[in-house]
Amino acid sequence: MAPRGNIKSVSPSEILLENILIVMNGETFSKDLSAKIVGGPKKLENLIAAGKIESSKPTKAQNGKWFCNAAQVLRHCRNMRGR
Prior knowledge:
By secondary structure, the chain is mostly helical. The protein has a domain at about 30-83. It is built from 4 helices and 3 strands, in the order αβααββα. It has helices at about 10-25, 30-40, 40-50, 70-75, and strands spanning about 30, 55, 65-70. The chain has a 3-stranded antiparallel sheet with strand order 1-3-2. Helix 2 packs across helix 3 (about 40-50). It is elongated, with a radius of gyration of 17 Å. It starts with 11 loop residues before the first helix and ends in an 8-residue tail after the last helix. The model has no long low-confidence stretch (mean pLDDT about 90).
């Protein structure tokens, strides 16, 4: 009998998290909300510069609103648990 490959068990919480990220992939957050989730505006700018979070500014106006991919922002969220 041939040995079987490794079967990875997936917890329900991992499935739920993956489902949330799939649903949020088509959604966007504002730049302010994204900065709050990832841990600040500087960290958000670094993640955008590194290509880890996609962002867009549809209007050319100086005060135009920025939009960030919600799923990518959630993947890089800071630890919100108390110590």
